Every structure is written in structure tokens, then in C-alpha cells.
């Protein structure tokens, strides 16, 4: 057994043959921050890491978020020695345990014994949907549920029949499809919670390195409405988007060119992030990169559920695209809200229509 030879955050650990994705550090950083905020506000924190991998995430929740108890479950018993080594301090302190069960079995066990957790982390490979309903059973009302999806082709509309099977939604391809992936996950967890008479509220939503991560807070009252759960229409003719409600299905056409809109959904149409929660996380964050992401999250939180890429603006405007910062400044000067988005480094989110973005980009390009 190799000794502790890796470092992330404030902890040292080893990987060996266990799963560890270095590129997911940002998602773990944000999870630890949100958990820390929860611990400070409630005075206690119990974490269930249902798919622990090498155990570094569970270790960070214990050490950095000061979790009172951590249950690290890793379905592969062959890496049990590695997980145990990484969590040996927490186990010795009576603050952690390690098991090797199917995640659904763990969630059922929690429900059966009314052993509900403040934070349930489901870092699955592929879609989280096979674990969604049971994961809600293990989550405390008011607690946090942190979900992962790595199934980008399904979420971005390249496999629409697959999205129908996985999410109960029809996903179509368009320039803002990566945001669609986050919204499909949020919509699915909200609809599943509504079946149980519960509601959800996004804390933050992250797309990074082809991985989708959403953290939601479980609420006691249903929150599903026609305003926050519906469809996104995209016009392949002019490139414009429109939110489409259930009562207008089959009747929506593009106001610009009269073409029928291509619909994706149903999906979450509300805010991607909770600004108040982000501000609390910022008070604890010290890493400049994390602070930058939290700033972006705050700016884009409640803007429309899509973005415009610079490439699309250049193609449709038939121009050499000026610097994004100039377009953003010009849109703000006209009274629109406009910001970069963390989802795509070559895109912008705004409440301005695409027609205005093209006009502004042409003016910026000519001066």
C-alpha cells in the first residue's frame, strides 16, 4: 500500500487503483464551501458520499467542512484498503465509516432507519437518474443534494431518444446546449421531488470539463410551476431563443422569421444559482479562481436560460467578432443586463435579443 502522496485542498491522500479525477477539483472545492456554510448556519453537518472513489471528497468534507459524521460508500470493495487509509484519521476519531454497497441500497437503508443526511453527494458516472429518487429519501428536509452527470451527448441533444429515456425530456442540439444539460438535471430532480410532495431550490450549477454538477436544497413544499419548469425553443433560422410554457405547446413560432421553434424539454427554467448562498460561500472562499467562478455564478444566476456564443454572433452577423468585453459594455450602455458565463468562455448571457447583440457587435466591429 502506497502512503499518502497526493494533496488537494487541506488534505493528503493516496489514489492507488481507486478512482480519482483531478479535473473535478473545482466541483469538490465548491461542494466543500457549500457544506461549510451549512455547518456554520446549522451547527452540525452529516455527509453521505455515496460513490466515494478514493475517498478524497469525503475526507475534505470531514477536514475542511468540519463534518460531524461522514459515511463514505464505495461500491468497489477492491479499493477498500485505499479508502480506509485515506479516511483513517476520521475513522479513528469516530467520525466516519466506510462501506462497499450499491448506492441505492445505502439510500434505502437511510430511509428505512430514518437516518437522513445534511448533504448527500452522488458523484455518478453517466447519468444520476438511476439514483435520484432514492437519493432524495436519504436527504434531510432543508439539506443539500449534490448530483453529477457525465453523459454530455444525451444532455446536449446528440442523442434525443437517449434523453427521453434518461430524463423523460426531449433534448435538441443548439449553441447553448451545455446549459441545457444543467437544466435537464435540475428539472429532473425537481419533478422527482414534486412526486414526493417536496420541492428543490438550486444552490449552484456547474459545467466544467464536460462534467455537469448541480447542488440543490430540498424543501418541504413543492416548488414546481409552469414558470420554472417548461420548454426552451430555438429558431434555426435566426438563432433566437424563447421560453415556451406548457399551454403554448404546438403554437409557438419565431416572431422574427415565422419558423416553427425547435423545442427542448421539459427542463428547469428558473435561476441556475442562489445569489444569497453564493455570497455566503464567497465569505469563506480564499482561492482567487473559486472567487472568480462565484462572481460569474452571481452575475448569470437569473438571466434567461440560454446564452449566445461569439461564433454564432460572428456567423450570423457576418463580421469579425469584436472582443466580448466590448459587446458586453455596449449592451449594458443600452440598459440590458449582460455578463460572461462560466459555461462557455466564448459566450455571453444577456436579456437582450440576439438581433440587438448582432447590431451592437456590428457597431463595435466597425469602430
Automatic annotation (TrEMBL):
Keywords: Methyltransferase, RNA-binding, S-adenosyl-L-methionine, Transferase, tRNA processing, tRNA-binding. This is tRNA (Guanine-N1)-methyltransferase. SUPFAM superfamilies: S-adenosyl-L-methionine-dependent methyltransferases. It holds the Pfam family TRM. The keyword Cell wall biogenesis/degradation does not apply. GO terms for biological process: tRNA N2-guanine methylation. GO terms for molecular function: tRNA (guanine) methyltransferase activity; tRNA binding. The keyword RNA-binding applies.
